[in-house]
Specification:
The chain has 277 residues and is α/β, with parallel strands linked by helices. It has eight helices and eleven strands.
């Protein structure tokens, strides 16, 4: 079976390498059926600290135009989907809905992610920056996990996004909660909301080539997704073309044993379940 990679980042996001075309040709070399180009939507409305992790808003029209050009160039070899990873931050969401509106007709899907959580007395806590580890430890790892999942809950309730990105991101640098039962109950609340929303969740393989050595989400959450029949899709979160489709075949072989029977694709926001071979 040919798979697809829906979570990719090019050099346009300022913290990845390779052009959009490099990612497409890598996907062709790896015999993928589809690739989604999903660079970060401009973070202009997030706290200023995060602006460097995405292209400025005035570059976004060129991003869309370039994907369309490459769609036509490679139409006989691979399907290229237009997408973006759009951060959710509670006080920025309404502004994001306004500035993203001119581009919505071009998208096939939107990945919703939380990279920063609000915190009283602090503008925001960066969830996946190594420099934030001392702050997270000082504030309390469990408290940060709970705030992260509460923010994820808010994001899902907007009914704006199609795919939940890197579900359990706070573990990125090996910070795991002490009260695992309490955090698990919060995770189940999030899954309840996803189940009612019709959203999909990605199996993000980037954790396998980072220090945490786990997929996002972890196995227990994947099993819960399968049991609840929540749609699942695949993303490498590649920040280099070499990571396109990273370990997809290996992961699918494993999770098929847990009862997974299909993966979902998106086209113009339509969710299509594809049976696994």
């Amino acid at each position: 079976m040919q798979y697809w990679d829906y979570h990719t980042h090019s050099s346009l996001c300022n913290h990845a390498i390779g052009t959009i075309e490099d990612y497409i040709t890598s996907a062709i070399e790896k015999n993928l059926a589809e690739i989604g180009i999903s660079d970060h939507f401009p973070m202009d409305l997030l706290p200023e600290h995060f602006h460097i992790y995405a292209m400025p808003l005035n570059e976004f029209p060129s991003y869309i135009s370039e994907i369309k050009r490459l769609q036509a160039k490679y139409i006989s070899q691979i399907k290229v989907k237009i997408a973006s990873e759009v951060d959710f931050f509670p006080t920025a969401f309404n502004g994001y809905k306004r500035i993203i509106k001119p581009f919505l007709d071009d998208f096939d899907y939107i990945i919703g992610s939380v990279h920063a959580v609000p915190w009283q007395g602090i503008e925001a806590i960066p969830i996946d920056e190594v420099q934030a580890i001392p702050m997270i430890k000082e504030l309390g790892v469990d408290r940060v996990y709970l705030e992260y999942y509460d923010t994820l809950l808010e994001m899902i309730k907007t009914n704006f996004y199609n795919i939940v990105g890197h579900f359990d991101l706070p573990k990125k640098y090996g910070l795991f909660p002490q009260d695992s039962d309490k955090i698990w109950q919060k995770i189940l609340q999030v899954l309840d909301q996803i189940e009612n929303s019709g959203m999909a969740v990605e199996i993000n393989t980037s954790g396998l080539y980072k220090n945490v050595k786990q997929t996002y989400p972890k196995e227990d959450i994947i099993k819960e997704l399968i049991q609840r029949k929540i749609p699942i899709t695949l993303g490498s979160d590649a920040h280099s073309p070499k990571y396109i489709g990273f370990k997809f075949q290996e992961i699918i072989v494993r999770i098929k044993k847990w009862g997974l029977t299909s993966l979902c694709q998106f086209s113009s926001y339509e969710n299509n379940l594809i049976p696994l071979d």
